[in-house]
Amino acid sequence: MVRHVQAMHSYTVAKLIQKVASSGQISRKDYMHLTSMILSMTTMTPFDRRRINQVLDAVQTQQITLLD
User: How many Cβ atoms from other residues are within 10 Å of residue 68's Cβ?
Assistant: First the structure.
C-alpha cells in the first residue's frame, strides 16, 4: 500500500513539475500543493523532495512566475 501511495505521489510531483517547467509559471494553488506535499509527506523520495525544492527556489528567485 505504501508503494502505491508513493508511486502515485511521484506521478503527481512529476506532472506538476513538468507543467511548471514548460510554462515558466505556477498557480498559487499548485504552489501551495507543492509546499503542503513537502511538509507533510514523510515517505517522499529524496529525488522528489529535491525537484520540489528546485521549483520553490525558482519561485523565490523569480525565475518562475507565481500567478494569482
Answer: 4
User: What DSSP line would sit under 28-66, residue for residue?
Assistant: HHHHHHHHHHHHH-TT--HHHHHHHHHHHHHHHTTSSEE
CB 7 within 8 A of CB 21: no
Scanning the structure block, which residue is given the C-alpha cell 523520495? 45
Q: Model's pTM, two decimal places? A: 0.80
Q: How far is CA 44 from CA 1, 58, 59, 64, 67, in A?
A: 14, 20, 21, 23, 26
Cell of residue 30, nine digits = 499548485
Separation between Cα atoms, residue 14 and residue 51, nearest integer Å: 9
- Compare 68 and 4 and report the one with higher pLDDT: 68
